[in-house]
Amino acid sequence: MSRPQDPHRPFFPFGNPFRMISPKGSQMSPRLISILNSFEETLAERLSKLIPEDKGDVLSLTWMRSAMESLCETHTDVKTLITDLELPVTDWDQKWIDVYLDVSVRLLDICIALSSEISRLNQGHLLLQCVLHNLESGTPERYMKARSSLDNWRRHICSKNPRVQSCGSILDSLVETLDLPKVKNSAKGKVLMRAMYGVKVETVFIFSVFASAFSSSSKNLLDLTIPDTVLWNRAFSDLQTRVNGEIRETFSSGKFTALKELESVDSIVKALYPAIQDGVQQPPEVEEALKICFTELQGGAEKLSKGLDLLAKQVDTFFKIVLSGRDALLCNLRVSSTETNAVTTAGNIVEHQVVR
Q: What is its main location (predicted)?
């Protein structure tokens, strides 16, 4: 469901990009069609695997890690596709290069924001360790310290990260890049642009989900309308409907987070807090409940910390993939420019000698 204050954002702000990559002026060969279909079929399978089987999987850190793995694989597939197309950078339209460089730097910005939030959440693990350490002693004085650490943990996880709050504007700018450049008389260019379209849609969607999860708000969610001409349309639509619907339902119910592992720890903390009375001896039944909460908090805190660590590694891997692709393109452009200058210089020398 969608809340009134969270209007759906349009997907095609400048029209349907597939009108621009229709095969007018250049027909795709069977080989190019095979390359494109293979890419899109793989993307469809990848998106299908991300569709949660259970509501509890949205948004678990395990699912989020799988989503980042999927992005890494898709971006790697594009590199392979470019190689298969045998389309050197010298044949790229300048608009394609500009869009790629612009999009890549924004993706790096989002990665930095997500990494900072994962690190911030993981810092709360130290506070939970202080709670567990103080509870082990069983003395009233240590219970008071444990309560103080619980208070600090709650304030910490409920605070806002300015970097994450800025992701909304970055996502809006990325949506604008989904209006593909026009491709004229280049069948290989059409294949490249259509593949890049799929990459950008998956990337923008997953990052919008992450931004919503980490900002504790569904306002960053995007509802993307995909043309049925792409082979991954059904898989993407099913994934988007399932994930976005569950996130909106979570926040509309008043929960402060959509992260399942964080929500689980918070529930344990809420049960634990009343059992720790400042300097008051607890009855046996309360002490027994306290022991159960202690054990649950140990397990929950460890699961949350490990999940955040693994997710951080995947975000870092994606960051390196985007950065390496960007560096490779810039390197190729420099080489092409150097070769062009060398040819021009050689031509000028020959011309000068002929004139003499």
A: membrane
Tokens coding 140: 């009233």
- The burial of 9, by beta-carbon neighbours within 10 Å (0-12 exposed, 13-18 middle, 19 or more buried), is given as middle
Q: Which among 83, 111, 61 is positioned nearest to 320, based on CA atoms?
A: 111
pLDDT at 281: 58
Question: What are the helix (H) ranges across the chain?
Answer: 30-49, 61-85, 94-137, 140-158, 162-165, 167-176, 187-215, 233-252, 260-272, 284-355
Distance CA 52, CA 50 (A): 6
| Regions of the chain short of the pLDDT cut 70 | 1-26, 179-182, 277-282, 336-356
SS3 readout for 138-207? CCHHHHHHHHHHHHHHHHHHHCCCHHHHCHHHHHHHHHHCCCCCCCCCCHHHHHHHHHHHHHHHHHHHHH
Angle, alpha carbons 338-340-341 (nearest 5°): 65
| pLDDT at residue 11 in the model | 39
Q: Which two tokens stand for residue 104?
A: 């890549």
- pTM equals 0.84
CB atoms within 10 A of CB 307: 22
pLDDT score recorded for residue 345: 45
pLDDT in the model for residue 249: 92
Contact partners, residue 58, CB within 8 Å, separation at least 6 = 52, 242, 243, 246, 247, 258, 260
- Contacts made by residues 27-36, CB under 8 angstroms, sequence distance 24+: 27/187, 28/187, 28/190, 28/191, 29/187, 32/85, 32/187, 32/188, 32/191, 35/81, 35/84, 35/85, 35/191, 36/191, 36/194, 36/195
- Residue 274 is which amino acid? P
Domain spans of the chain? 17-348
